[in-house]
Amino acid sequence: MTLLFFWLFLGFMAIGLPIAFALILAPGISLLVENPARISLLIRRLYNGVDSFPLMAVPFFILAGEVMNVGGITTSLVNFSKALIGHFRGGLAQVNILSSILFAGLSGSAVADTSALGSMLIPAMEKNGYSRKFSAAVTAASSVIGPIIPPSGLMILYAFVMNVSVGGLFAAGMVPGLLVGFSLMGITWYLAKIRDYPVANRRATMRERGVALKEAIWPLLTPIILLGGILSGVFTPTEAAAVAAGYALLVSLFVIRTLKPKDLPRVFAETAISSGVILFLVGAAVAFSSVVSLSGAPQALTKTILAVSDNPLMVLFLINILLFIVGMFLDAGPAILILGPILAPVVTGMGVDPLHFAIVMCVNVTVGLATPPMGLVLFVAAGLSKESVESITIEILPFLIVEITVIFLITFVPAISLTVPRLLGFIT
User: What is the pTM of this model?
Assistant: First the structure.
């Protein structure tokens, strides 16, 4: 089988065809031209790609994020972050990052993070003396923490495609996610110092911090309940997603009462639309990957990489460069679904732990969400701030340098991602 599907795919992408349709049409046309009898394979794989119990977690996590967003739970997280670190220089920028870390344990979505926190914090930062482009850059850069710290919809996709443990992958993402967050706080502290950014507010008293914690305690319990249930075996990751959605509804409707019954139709409609888009994309990507396998492209790529070097560290370095370039043009989900089945067998065949490579890939393509020219969260932040993507790109460069440094640190120090899964028994 030739690589006609690949060139067709690039052509469709170049003319702006939505990626889900490009993933179906490119291999479909290729099979019709070269081997019409196999077109039924593409259709079966499209259906089978969506017909999966683990993937049911995706719409449930999206529902949980929508409920928390519309219910205003993010406000309590921001207030809690202000009470903790708002008194530092550049405090509101630091609050932005800490809120992203806390919000990551609720939604697992970079776009949800950018939308929820950006709509609140970008105007607040501007009033506090920050430029809009810097405020947007901080929001976009910190939002990539969302899919790294569990629970993570992106990791569920990777686990589904590559048949690795979702619980193990969640455990492996804890330390890298916090490392990205604290590294961003470090560069923000440095920029605040040299640019003389303002203090957000006075140091909160212990009583004020206690009040802020009381208001935020219900959403903060979400990741503890989910991870505790998954890691202890009380429920599966898919069941955990349903628990998250149910918990978010109970808390928002009956405990803190920030969500009204009249808001539910809009919440369910947004969830259905987002879920439909993602699941169709998953099915299309699975169908595309089946044609990639038939073409022999993974074997050819393996030979090409091994011809350059058979050193696992050098191979990981080259793959990181490839993923960074791909992330500049391709969304994280499609990048995982398309490249995961191609790249993972190469590195795991060289002795790299599957969970280690999973984290390397997930973090890399997630950072790609904030890289120009096609970074999705850049466009969301630009829309919220009314700044151009180009101006935000200049401000986000120091944050991207820090995030890329963390990627290579995770790549070459496997213990960062593997220690927690090993302690919890996911690695023997």
Answer: 0.77
